[in-house]
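Continued from yesterday's entry.
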Amino acid sequence: MVHLVAFAVRPTAFVVALLVSKAGTGLANAGPPGFTACQTAAVEQTLLEREKSLIGPSHAMQHSHMRKNQCEVERGTRMVPGKGIEMKASKTLEDDAAARQAVFKRNSKVSQLRSGATTLLGGLTGSTRAYAQIVSTDPLVVGRWSSPFVIPVVGVSAVLLHTGKVMFWSYDPVNYHNPKKGNDGVGYIWNPATRTGYNIPPPENIWCAGHTILSDGRVYVAGGNLRYPDGNAPPGQQAWQGTLTNYTFNPLQEIWAKQPDMQRGRWYPTVTKLADNRVVITSGTDETGSNAITNVVEVFTPDPNINGIGKINAVGFHNPSGLYPLQFLLPSGQMLEAGPGAGSSFQLNPATWNWSGLPRMMSDHHYLGTGASYTDASVTPNRQLVMVAGGYDYNPPLVNAPVAVNEWLDGFNPAAGWKPFPQFQTARHNHNTVMLPDGAMLTVGGNRGVYGYEEPELSAELYSKPAGDPTGIWNKVAPHTIQAAYHSTAILLPDATVLLSQDDMDSSAAAAFQHKAQVYTPPYLFKGAQPVITSAPASARYGQSFNVLTNRTAMAGAVLVAPAATTHGNDMHQRVIKLQAQQLTNGLTVTVPASSALVPPGHYMLFVLDSAGIPSVARFLQIS
């Protein structure tokens, strides 16, 4: 008789079903509930050899290491950082507020000492980095993480809604790996004001989909998990299947609307909103179960009605170099594709749907790098920088390591090619990079090992200048407690803090229901009380100037930050636009750029910053 044993390894598109001959056994379903990563040495070795023949030795070894890590967690021989360490959510709010107040009370004296120390050490060393390391426990320099608290769903995907709440979704941990329950998913709406929330079932198992936010605030989700690997399926059809379905989510009524099916299934696709609110859909493992990555490019055109049904059209073909390619809207209105392979440097023209090549990237950014787009509209001419960081080189033979190459492209002159961007202090992949209201970037988590969860990185790094300036450095800041490698997410919240969701190295259902999160308070929030926006419009049009009034004088600037829509380190909606601003006695007059290619239509977080660089709590502003 033949016994089918399926081994699913989430970090890649390639999962194979292995046929293991065993006398006297019946035919069993592959991937039943209660799936375990722990197998006998003989079964593991047989699977490794089979995967080598299908996907190559390097990729197969990554799978093997992944299974080893998760098996050690199951057996209790690998510790999960932060396990059992948590605080009641409401208590973390009180604790964080008390910590800020304690720093405020000593600010004046400490700032005088800091100024003197900076001058002294700067003169001795020629750099302030040494000083930053000396006072590395000071929240004024390194920020502070809250104690971990529970969000009872794995945050594989995280989207900030314009209601100010966060929506998470993931696979159903009870039925994970069960081919008969492949459409079961879970979701959760989380409120930053209380750090608590409530369940909201997704329409199906939309984890590992692509998602962005439309101009009216709807969340658009393309693809997801149609079926888990199934060893009972015909040969060549036993791997993951991507679903053809896509949905919109109305955050005001909190209801889903099914949109017309795509032409091909997609698991790990990227979606990118254009200047006219249409969405380009690329990449993703298709619906056949054959591990094929679709080359069909499709476009979603939303219906004007927030609960309406739009249209899906195939517009051409393009061979992506991998899953979840990083894509960005350029000032020209064209779409940039950057990676994950170094040769994937292209522009897509929405007027013709033709792709044109750009200079080759400096490095691969496989599994998984991050990207950011920063536009400075406060200067003439405007400037835009697109940054891609981390990931690893996917090169045989067996050893792959996180890349030490971060790079940037001039959005106004992409033909000039890619240039070096300052490197992380610790090379990493599976990390998250979050853009902050002051233009800086915070990189958290990830790992240094070959794949998934090996050598997890608990350190965080803060870029020393606005993202549009490639002359800064990355400085280590306060480390987080929870492990945040593969399947972690991090997003900016409206109060200018950052929410970090733990990874799922412990993939048990019990761990999912006790999933941890932390909130990072950046150094700028320890400088003093935040300025308060007392008056600002709820909407504005392109090219319009309007007043933003505050509770203090000497306001220094204003930015628009697009709400996050992130998964697998790929925030498909993230961008920061620094606005042209003129000072008023108690606020600013700001001007929205005239181009929807610089500011795609939609809801943004409007932050104002005072002369000390302290950002306000955001007001949501709809640009149309």
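--- second protein ---
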Amino acid sequence: MSHKKRYWQTENTATYSFDINKEHQLSAMAGFSASRTDYEEVTADSKKLSSILKYYNLQGAEEHGPNSSYAVPSSLVSFYGRFNYNFSNRYLATLTMRGDGSSRFAPGHRWGFFPSLALAWRASEESFIKENAPVISNLKLRTSWGRAGTDNIGQFQYMSAYGTGGDAVFGGQNPEIAPGYTETRFPNPNITWETSEMFNIGIDASFFNGKLNLEADWFYKKTNDILRERTDMPAILGYKLPAANVGKVDNRGIDLNITHRNHLRDFNYSIAGNLTWARNKVIDLLEPAGEKNNPRQRSTGHSMSQYFGYEALGLFQSDEEANNWAQPQFGKAKAGDIKYKDQNGDGIIDAEDEIAIGRSNYPELVYGLNLNAEWKGFDITFFFQGAALADFYYNGYLAFPYIEGRGGALLEHHIGNTWTPENPKAEFPRLYYGGNANNQLFSSFWMRNGSYLRLKNVEIGYDFKKLLLSKVSEIQGLRLYFSGSNLLTWSQIKYFDPELRSTDGSAYPQMKTFVFGANITF
């Protein structure tokens, strides 16, 4: 096998700045960039090479296997410019314009235009604030709007793709057998840039000479013409559909950062907290026909990562109840199995009864808290990190300790908490040997609250600089410390790491670590 990759890039910018009457400051920048990547690969399978020429003469080998080769070029060209205006260090404006052309799209659809505008008012520089609100050290109000684009798709999606099929007979009087070629993917000559428009309003504030600082932002982002692989072509036809611009999604949320620093004689401390809340919603999406015709299964109106499945109604408490209930056609239900709701009332539990269940696996809310303190050479740091407004789905061995006769490593998770006639209010269905498709259906039964709070890191140290080092001239600094990571976690999720969001528990958990160390400076 031989492969070769070539990449080149050029960046060119020019900047010009000038002032008018010392109050108006202006600057302008213009630029041009271009890049290209060429990837080539050749694979040859030859056996019993010449003992003299070896691999320098592959065609002289006695046996030849399948050979293959391909080349993938990709290029991007960009023109951009930026204009900055600053009036008396109080009113700020930035205008940016950018045009990008990508080889991933067909001629006529390769170029996208992406402007942005940012405005800010440094209110703390106004005389009426300086004179009347001395507690305000800094106050800046800002807003921005911008458009960005992405070409994150494979090459040549706008063209048909062909591949070799079975051998075919070609020719008339002198026929011969040769590999046949078939179209494997339809073209999409109209595919173009995925674009996102984002609007932001924010405030930066500082009080009491910087002892209290605040940063807050509200943002709204709408993504149009989402690039996505299409899967609504039946596989039996033997064709693939190209990537396409298939929908719209909006995102909105807030970012908040608060910091407080102060000291009381020899005691110094700081408190820093951050919080991000974000929610996305599918406005429109090209969905498979079955989902589009069934409003209970449409992604539109939900988040991009919305779970869909069956609504669980608990566990059957007797075989008679199980026999009289409309259950899936995936195996006969018994006492201790999961009972599902027949959403459309047709007497059968099947794919038509799937609905949106739970929240996304990705949390809408993430937050952190950092606490620091120092006193006469001693220092201590606590860092807490957490997430909320998310659900977690038990899957694999987390839900089914026995599948097709294989023992589950998390059987401990079920012992004493599985259904039996003597334990009808158990958390989990009955234990069973072999497959049980009924209990393995994707359903709300296996949903859990995915929120958690973790003591991510603790560090305690002592600096001996003032105590010892004046007597040891060779040592300029000495600090001993102890730190620990992932020490405590508060969560409803058991037996695995909720931070990793692995729904089957297969991801290796983050370990608790303890470190003793010394920093010595000579």
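The first helix runs from residue 127 to 132. The CA atoms of residues 291 and 303 lie 15 Å apart. Will compare against the first tomorrow.
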